[in-house]
Amino acid sequence: MKQVLSDIWAYVLSHPKKIFLLALAGVLVLWVIFGNYGVVARFRMEAENRMLRELQEQEELKIIENTRKIRSADNPETIEKIAREKYNFSKDDETLFIIEDKKK
């Protein structure tokens, strides 16, 4: 074991430029892979970008649905429907029965 370490140390001392360049290349490779703008960070940012785009599409669909609801709010039948469903309004000659779920 001692002989192997001695041989390695002798090689390092006999080729210092080569060892320095190898160490520099190793550090550069690690920086490219794990640095702030490296490959790992790139994959993480791509995944976040996909998630945000999906969220944007969902929100745009909600906006379209809300716009459709707002445009239909001018219609008297729609106003009556919302008043009946959401606020339990009824006409004067109607009896209203409210059935609640017991699952809550």
UniProtKB/TrEMBL annotation:
Transmembrane feature ranges: 20-43
Domain of life (superkingdom): Bacteria
InterPro entries: FtsL/DivIC (IPR007060)
Keywords linked to the UniProt accession: Membrane, Transmembrane, Transmembrane helix
Protein's recorded name: Septum formation initiator
Organism for this UniProt entry: Prosthecochloris marina
